[in-house]
Amino acid sequence: MTTQETAHTQHRDYTGAKLGMWFFLFTEILLFGGMFLLYAVYRVKFAADFHEAGKEMNLLLGAANTVILLTSSLTMVLAISAIKQGQRTRSIAFQSATILLGLVFLANKYFEWTGHIQHGLYPSAPELLARGNGTTLFYGLYYVMTGIHGLHVVIGVGMIGFVLVLTLRKTVTSADYVKLENTGLFWHLVDIIWIYLFPLFYLIA
Amino acid sequence: MENNFYHTKGKFPGILGWLFTTDHKRIGLLYLGATLSFFFVGVMLGLTMRLELIRSGMHIISAQTYNALFTLHGVVMVFLFVIPGIPASLGNFILPLQIGARDVAFPKINLLSWWLFMAGAACAVTSLFTGSGPPDTGWTFYIPYSIRTTTNVSLAVFGVFLIGFSSTLTGMNFLTTIHRMRAPGMTWKRMPLFTWSVYATAWIQLLATPVLAITLTLIILERYLGVGFFDPAKGGDPILFEHMFWIYSHPAVYIMILPAMGAVTDIIPVFTRRNIFGYTAIAASSLAIAFVGYLVWGHHMFTSGMSDTARIIFSLLTFIVAVPSGVKVFNWIASMYKGSIRLDAPFLYVLGFIFLFSIGGLTGLMIGALSTNLHVHGTYFIVAHFHYVIFGGAVFGFFAALHYWYPKITGRMYEEHLAKLAFAVLFIGFNMLYFSMFIAGWEGMPRRYYDYLPRFNTPNLISTIGSWVLAMGLVILFYNLIHSLLSGEESGNNPWEAATLEWQTTSPPLTENFETIPEVTKGPYQYR
Fold first, then answer.
1. Partners of residue A176 on adjacent β-strands
2. What rounded mean pLDDT belongs to chain B?
3. Residues B266, B192: contact at Cβ < 8 Å?
């Protein structure tokens, strides 16, 4: 039986499902790529301002978030490994842990943002504009890039919640776990984007 | 006739069986109905613009209304008609049939794509009526005006964002379908060239659209939050917006033209009873156009203040991207040599396509040259150029494909004499409407102006009359297709005696496309 016959008769194509997800991830790279392009242009133009503004980022929270996301990618992989071995309860536990870590990430982001906003450093704020163009654009990029990234964390948490329910309902099993794997792929992308954001905003000081 | 996909007994009754369908054929028709409706709206907008421009100094609308009209004409035609155009409607319907599959790789995502398209269209239409009225920025939304205008830019732009998301998902779907679901024996080199063109188009839909998505998002953020990326007062650069906008919008024009070229390539062998000349070259040229098309966006910005070096490079690349299109034109002509020609409507539209697209393409080379561009940028010469390639090219190709696949979709034949008449009227009206624009533009008439100097009166009068002739042609064309739905002759499965797989099943197709999945042993165009 060829793979294509299987795809036709059983309406299930593991390789095809993964391929579709990889294509979609490629589009996300392009989406964030546009923002990284903006960052590159303005970093070159306002190098000194970016360096100074980088010092005001909360390195502790940023580093913590990096560790949190890396760990959540680990728990995601362990969740997939568990379901492959038929260990449903373990997979559910690891998926839950991933969601929890994602929520902690978002909480940290909330504290960071409110911290900056309370200091009057948000788009169009007079205090920010008074600091000059380079700093204004640095913070603009900071909010837009971590904001759109944060939106993807929210989406990712939602996706993991969805496959968690499917795992509970035994729709996702050791025989058919591609939905969990594809969710994992999306989560890893969210993680990798953060790995690029972290040095560009927190480590350039 | 009853055992076809129109009569599938699905989960949902009546119209819900269409709105919630995951059948690629039904989704294709949903797109077809929607896009043709938007085409009609765009035509009305265009006719109104031409009426305003019938004579220097005479007005039927205000300048503000005119600005809104040309913005909407662009947004509706580009985002709601031509870009979804062939891929979403005919691509959805024909692609799985052509490769011997039962559906696309992700049928539910296909339905989601259509819902996103309709949601985006709803946003765009709503922006006409709420708040301070329809956008007046031009479909290109250039900064700073798109930030400062109080008109409904954010809602319109968000609608386009949703349509873009729809397009991206369709691209992903088609790529996976073509990679994974070809019938046994259908190697890459046995795929029809329409499939090849849909494949190349899907790559552009996949990778170019996200850049539009972020660009549009940044407009909305700028309007609401004043982030400053494109605002010089805050250190930003408005030209950077133009770069980001055109990095999508140039590849977008290849989304528009490649599937039309693919349909043309499929039609020629059937109506000349010959194998296509240069199969590999045509397939490769589709990929080449898709790839090089990403590199030429700067030719929309030659007068924006870019460096000479940048402009020279973009100009050179623009000349290079014309080469694969030229390869196609030569191969199409060569395919007709010593053919047994059947001059029916699909083939007439193909001939019209080749002629009109060639004019558009050659004028494209003229304006790709820096020296000429400086004089004609922002004039009607540009307007004429892109209408020749998009309308004369992509849309005539679409009309060819509509007539060619009409019996496959409906099980009936359209009326041939009426179709030929429609083509003749359309062709004459088209050239009156747009060739006069080349003249006006060359003489210096600027675009996006609601009035002009009296010396441009003659070409404008001819152009407006041409628009009426064109409209008549469209009326005849669509009257024919709609009337034939009800009273056309039954076509049989394969009225054209074509060799590609979609013709080896019933017209209209069965719900599951084929009784048994065919095994492919030869190429798609073996007639002689």
1. A173
2. 95
3. yes
**Coil/strand/helix, residue B379:** strand
Q: Are B239 and A48 in contact (CB under 8 A)?
A: no
Choose among B504, B27, B384, B95: nearest CA to B259.
B95
Q: Give per-residue pLDDT as tens, A130-152.
A: 999 999 999 999 999 999 999 99
Q: Is the pLDDT of residue B1 over 70?
A: no
Least Cα distance to B165 among B201, B204, B217, B213 occurs for B213
Provide the sign of the torsion angle of the four alpha carbons B340, B341, B342, B347, taken in this order: positive
In the Cβ-directed half-sphere of A2, how many Cα atoms lie within 13 Å? 11
Quote the minimal CA–CA distance from A147 to chain B in Å: 11
Q: Phi then psi for B490, rounded to 5 degrees? A: -65, 135
B499 alpha-carbon distance from chain centroid: 26
The pLDDT tens digits for B267-286 are: 999 999 999 999 999 999 99
Over residues B235-257, the mean pLDDT reads: 96
Token digits for B162?
């949703």
CB distance B139 to B153 below 8 Å: no
Q: pLDDT digits over A146-174, tens only?
A: 999 999 999 999 999 999 999 999 999 99
Using the beta-carbon criterion (under 8 Å), do A123 and B180 form an inter-chain contact?
A: no
Mean pLDDT over residues A100-120, rounded?
Answer: 96
Q: How far is B177 from chain A (nearest CA, A)?
A: 8
Indicate yes or no: pTM above 0.90.
yes
Report chain A residues touching chain B, CB-CB < 8 A: 2-5, 7-8, 13, 15-16, 19-20, 23-24, 26-28, 30-35, 37-38, 41-42, 45-46, 123-124, 129, 132-134, 136-137, 140-141, 143-144, 148
DSSP-assigned beta bridge partners for residue B412? B490
Domain boundaries, chain B: 5-504
Q: Which of B106, B203, B229, B519 to mutate to test the interface with A (most CBs of A within 10 A)?
A: B229
List b or e across B248-274, with b for residues whose CB sees 16 or more CB atoms inside 10 angstroms.
bbbbbbbbbbbbbbbbbbbbbbbbbeb
Q: Mean pLDDT across the stretch A87-106?
A: 97
CB-based contact A4 B180, cutoff 8 Å: yes
Domain boundaries B5-504, corresponding CATH code: 1.20.210.10
Domain ranges of chain A: 36-202
Structure tokens at B391: 């309308």
Question: b/e map of B178-210 (b: 16 or more CB within 10 Å)?
Answer: bbbbbbeebeeebbbbbbbbbbbbbbbbbbbbb
Contact B181 A7 (CB under 8 A): yes
Amino acid in position B520: V
Which sign, positive or negative, has the C-alpha torsion A15, A17, A18, A21?
A: positive
CA distance to partner chain A, nearest, from residue B201 (Å)? 14
**B402: part of which helix (H) or strand (E)?**
helix B396-410
The yes/no answer on whether domain A36-202 falls in CATH 2.40.110.10 is no
B181·A45 Cβ contact <8 A: no
Residue of B180, B206, B228 with shortest CB distance to A137: B228
Distance in Å from the first CA to the final CA of chain B: 32
Interface size between A and B, measured as CB pairs under 8 A: 111
Q: At what angle do helices B238-272 and B279-292 cross, to 10 degrees?
A: 170
Task: Provide, as residue numbers in chain A, all residues whose Cβ is less than 8 Å from the Cβ of B184.
Answer: 2, 4-5
The answer to whether residue A4 scores a pLDDT higher than 50 is no
pLDDT at B455 over 80: yes
CA distances from B105 to A101, B108, B181 (A): 33, 9, 7
Closest to B290 in 3D by CA, of B253, B333, B329, B342: B253
pLDDT attached to residue A10:
57
* CB-based contact B284:B111 (threshold 8 Å): no
